[in-house]
Design goal:
CATH topology of the largest domain: Creatine Amidinohydrolase
Helix content: 25-40%
Order of helices and strands: HEHEEHEHEHEHHHEEEEEHHEEEEEEE
Mean pLDDT: 96
Distance between the termini: 51 Å
Shape: elongated
Oligomer: single chain
CATH class of the largest domain: Alpha Beta
Number of domains: 2
Largest sheet: 6 strands, mixed
Strand content: 15-25%
Strand order of the largest sheet: 4-3-2-1-5-6
């Protein structure tokens, strides 16, 4: 079914008069528009796409299933005019919309915020979306394999990150989905460490978290390496615990399984090994047009996994003053069960 038509049915089912989409990623998902400024108005019968002069020709090329409107003035002013012409006195809008949008519209219409109208549709990936995500995975993995020989003692975190980004772009990534993480030694105990000029040293755990892109869709993965040095036994124990947790969560995942249960499979294993206080983030998250989207794989998640969902499994252990380990894969819930999309080896790799 056409995506806009799906939203139109939801609008009708909720007895809404009109629905305004302001999230640019949701607009892209519904219309195909790749620009950075637009609004989308959907009613039971119509769909109106609004953008400014900068994107007029781009909209003509990319937008599907909408009447394209390029007003001379402010987009909201033109939207108000459309709603009055259609005799719509009430308007639903995205719960995540900026307050400025609400403030501009509240005097003219009865407003109602709506949660996850488009996001719930994006949860289950279509065949073409999965193809692009797989392509983003391959590009990311090929880039890592290309620069892997350069990851060694004496090289800075920043140099590795720059080489990896350059390789990603050579592989065809138009965008880098997030700032690449290369965290070594004590820095690797920070789950979202910023890249620094620290040089890799003997005994370091080295966490590398990166992703690729294809057709606007992203991938996200993490591997942890270990440089030969002191306290190898303790660090290998940390690594093997995370690896077991990663595999346990993947085995647990499947259609009809709660995201909370998947998180618990990883968390209980880490806790049982004595590292429970050192794993504080969720076990995973959805990936698609956004690098973080539903479903959320965590202890507080209410999501139930279903066919078509793509998400990460990324347990970790972070020991202050020592270092951290995170192993992140992307998985897809298909007709025949859960498929791991990432293929890079996960066995402990000692440099």
């Amino acid at each position: 079914m056409d995506r806009i038509e799906s939203i139109r049915e939801r609008v009708s089912g909720k007895r809404l008069k009109a629905f305004l989409v302001s999230n640019i990623i949701n607009i892209r998902y519904l219309t195909g528009f790749r620009g950075s400024s637009a609004l989308l108005l959907i009613t039971k019968k119509d769909a109106f796409f609004y953008t400014d002069f900068r994107y007029r020709e781009q909209a003509v090329r990319e937008v599907r299933g909408c009447e394209i409107i390029v007003p001379a003035g402010a987009l909201l002013r033109r939207i108000k005019k459309t709603l009055k012409t259609l005799r719509k006195s009430s308007l639903a809008f995205e719960f995540t919309a900026p307050y400025s949008l609400y403030h501009d519209l509240k005097r003219s219409f009865a407003l109602s915020p709506v949660k996850d109208m488009v996001e719930s549709l994006r949860l289950k990936k279509e065949k073409e979306e999965v193809r692009l995500i797989k392509k983003a995975v391959r590009r990311a993995e090929e880039a890592f394999v290309e620069i892997r020989p350069q990851i060694k003692k004496g090289v800075t975190e920043r140099a590795i990150a720059l080489r990896l980004e350059e390789s990603l772009r050579r592989k065809g990534c138009q965008r880098i989905p997030f700032d690449i993480i290369v965290a070594s030694g004590e820095n690797s105990a920070l789950p979202h460490a910023s890249v620094s000029d620290r040089r890799l040293k003997a005994g370091d755990l080295v966490v590398i978290d990166w992703g690729g892109e294809a057709g606007g869709y992203f991938s996200d993965m993490t591997r942890t390496l270990l440089i030969k040095g002191p306290d190898m036994e303790g660090k290998i124990k940390m690594y093997n615990t995370v690896l077991k947790a990663n595999r346990s969560a993947i085995r647990t995942a499947g259609a009809g399984v709660s995201a909370r249960e998947v998180d618990r499979a990883a968390r209980d294993l880490i806790k049982g090994a004595g590292f429970g206080d050192l794993f504080g983030h969720g076990t995973g998250h959805g990936v698609g047009l956004d690098i973080h989207e539903s479903p959320r794989i965590s202890l507080i998640s209410r999501d139930i996994l279903g066919q078509g969902m793509v998400f990460t499994i990324e347990p970790g252990i972070y020991m202050p003053g020592v270092g951290g380990v995170r192993i992140e894969d992307m998985v897809y819930v298909g007709e025949k069960g859960v498929r791991v999309l990432t293929r890079l080896p996960k066995r402990p790799e000692i440099i």
